[in-house]
Amino acid sequence: MMNNSKFVYVTYIAAKPEQIWKALLDAQFTRQYWGHDNVSDWKPGSDWEHRANDDARTPRLVGKVVESAPRAGLC
Length: 75
What we know:
Distance between the termini: 45 Å
Order of helices and strands: HHEEE
Largest sheet: 3 strands, antiparallel
Strand order of the largest sheet: 1-2-3
Strand content: 15-25%
């Protein structure tokens, strides 16, 4: 039997929206907090990888961008 389940990851962070947006998209900021790079062109439907910050640049997590836009008036 084939399992077609999906996992949706939701995180709530106590920070200003512009800080969260920067944390997701700015590689230096991302490395500082997660030790990984978020790699994508951030267009809906595009691939996304959470890559290790080592010589191999090994993908640790992969997924698809569902939506990528700061909410109007927040950023």
